[in-house]
Design goal:
heterodimer; A: 113 residues; mainly beta; 6-stranded mixed β-sheet; 0% helix; globular; B: 118 residues; 7-stranded mixed β-sheet; 4-stranded antiparallel β-sheet; 11 strands; 52% strand
């Protein structure tokens, strides 16, 4: 069975500050891990994913995430927040069949001027 | 990226009526479509997986007679909430994939449909 926990339903940072959104997972099989972003009234957009290979994954809009198996974590970071980053972010895990995604409850990122 | 649309974006209905939600892949053919349900401040929860031309596979605890899924073509899947009740009020999101089961695959999500049952 797989599950995802996102710590912090709301995160607020100042523009230019580091963004850190936390995601921990549990999985009985080697996981595939994803971060999605959702802007108001829009669908989920893939930011990045980890399947195999390098554990530090770079995505769109300057985001990156590191798969740490020992910590069962896949935290999302961005060195410098931009106002346009304000959105809701979802972490997700799937098994290697890719067909079933399990989502975290989401973290709303607020960026202050 | 690939675009998935949903219609309607919002629907309000009376208890006991049925509501149909459409999910379309606009610029690609989707071998597999997925239906999720999202309660306020909660995760998206997978309801069912549908492949074109075959019966949907429902997740445990999802009533297949209540949530009818039809995947008639490679670009259209529909979810019908039958005899809707207030507890069915939720945000329904669909997604579509091209190469389900491949590590090259990606799920493309629709914008969601807000269902309110009075």
């Amino acid at each position: 069975a797989q599950s995802v926990t996102q710590l912090g339903s709301h995160v607020s940072v100042s523009e230019g500050a580091l963004v850190l959104l936390r995601c921990n997972y549990s999985s009985s099989v080697p996981p595939y891990l994803f971060w999605y972003v959702q802007y108001p009234n829009q669908g989920l957009q893939l930011l990045l994913k980890y399947t195999t290979g390098a554990t530090l994954v770079k995505g769109i809009n300057g985001f990156e995430a590191e798969f740490k198996k020992s910590e069962t974590s896949f935290h999302l970071t961005k060195p410098s927040a931009h106002m346009s980053d304000a959105a809701e972010y979802f972490c997700a895990v799937s098994g290697q069949n890719f067909n079933k995604f399990y989502f975290g409850s989401g973290t709303k990122l607020n960026v202050k001027p | 990226g690939a675009v998935v649309s949903q219609h309607p974006s919002r629907v309000i209905c009376k208890s006991g009526t049925s509501v149909k939600i459409e999910c379309r892949s606009l610029d690609f053919q989707a071998t597999t479509m997925f239906w999720y349900r999202q309660f306020p401040k909660q995760s998206l929860m997978l309801m069912a997986t549908s492949n074109e031309g075959s019966k949907a596979t429902y997740e445990q605890g999802v009533e297949k007679d209540k949530f009818l899924i039809n995947h008639a073509s490679l670009t259209l899947s529909t979810l019908t909430v039958t005899s809707a009740h207030p507890e069915d009020s939720s945000f329904y999101i669909c997604s579509a994939s091209i190469l389900a089961g491949s590590y090259e695959d990606e799920q493309f999500f629709g914008p969601g449909t807000r269902l309110t049952v009075l």
